[in-house]
Write a structure and sequence with these properties.
Layout lengths: L3 H11 L6 E5 L7 H12 L3 E7 L34 E4 L2 E7 L3 H16 L7 E8 L4 H7 L1 H11 L4 E6 L17 H17 L14 E7 L13 E4 L7 E6 L6 E6 L17 H4 L5 E7 L6 H15 L6
Parallel strand pairs: 1-2, 1-5, 2-4, 5-6, 6-7, 8-11
Antiparallel strand pairs: 3-4, 7-11, 9-10
């Protein structure tokens, strides 16, 4: 089962999949190397792609939903791509399919869905939202809630749009103008891996008749450190789960400064496996090697019944009456 996704990806590359209507966003800005390389890779595969990214970097926003209330303020768009005073929403002068919004990643995703997509896709449905690839990994439940890249994806899933969040350990924040154009450029490697997974997901599916993913379900994909400076250039896809080796923060006092700082800790609570397929390895463990972790998530946060029932029974004396003592 762990190699099935890589097999599907290889099969998809050998077949011609129907073009998808895709909204592409991220949290590192509309001008990051990763999002532009992924845009080119998806377009090269024949998909109809609307890129709508934040005007400036919005890392760590999670699912925060903030729409613009001002036009572009100083210092302007990320990497100098938008002048101060420009409208809160605009497009690339050379490619009208590339847009920006002065808002958070989740807001970009839904602005794209509600305001731009009906005209852009000529009233056809949106088949998929792709978010990322993020500049840095987002492994485990703690970063799932923290990441703006994943936040855009799970916000779109909540609106009924199949979504994939991609995060890459190659975390350098860089402009798309620094892309070497070589296949070995980490941004191009990340873009091609993202496009390959989209191809595998869409293989054999007629989106006019069925969804790419079940309602309320998305994918979180974590790419390892890869590229020409490492021994990893083609990390295979591996099915994973979010729990298992996942980290969160603890706070300590820096003895040299006296200020609080955070350190990583791997707590048992964060890695308790209540849902999913227990035999799958944790995405944190898998993406630490030359493998790409693919986790399936649901936005139903309710605890499983066997875990919830004892708590519910304990509370029955108060929740079972309309009068609280």
């Amino acid at each position: 089962m762990l190699n099935r996704l890589s097999q599907l990806a290889a099969l998809a590359l050998a077949t011609s999949a129907a073009a998808l209507n895709i909204i592409l966003t991220n949290d590192d800005s509309w001008a990051s190397a990763n999002i532009r390389a992924t845009y080119e890779a998806l377009k090269a595969d024949g998909h109809n792609v609307l890129l709508i990214g934040p005007a400036v970097q919005q890392s760590g926003k999670g699912g925060t939903f903030v729409l613009p209330t001002t036009n572009i303020t100083a210092p302007g768009g990320e990497f100098g791509t938008i002048p101060v005073g420009a409208p809160y929403y605009g497009q690339d002068l050379n490619d009208s399919s590339i847009r920006y919004l002065n808002g958070t990643p989740a807001a970009c995703a839904i602005y794209g869905l509600d305001i731009i997509a009906p005209t852009f896709f000529k009233n056809q449905s949106v088949d998929l939202l792709v978010s990322g690839p993020n500049e840095g990994q987002n492994n485990g439940p703690f970063l799932y809630a923290l990441s703006g890249t994943i936040g855009a994806a799970y916000t779109a899933v909540g609106r009924g749009i199949p979504s994939i969040a991609f995060s890459a350990q190659n975390g350098t924040h860089r402009s798309y103008t620094t892309n070497t154009g070589l296949p070995s450029d980490p941004a191009n490697l990340a873009g091609r891996l993202a496009a390959n997974l989209v191809a595998a997901l869409a293989n054999g599916i007629d989106t006019s008749k069925e969804r790419l993913l079940p309602l309320g379900v998305g994918l979180s994909v974590n790419l390892p450190l890869f590229g020409p400076t490492s021994n990893c250039t083609e990390p295979p896809f591996t099915l994973t789960r979010m729990t298992g080796g996942a980290v969160t923060n603890k706070v300590v006092i820096d003895p040299s400064t006296g200020f609080p700082i955070y350190q990583n800790v791997i707590p048992k609570a964060l890695n308790t496996a209540y849902n999913g397929v227990p035999i799958l390895p944790g995405e944190s463990i898998v993406s630490a090697t030359c493998r790409t972790a693919v986790s399936v998530f649901s936005i139903d946060y309710d605890a499983p019944s066997k875990v919830a029932e004892p708590v519910q029974l304990q509370l029955l004396p108060v929740v079972g009456t309309s009068k609280l003592a």
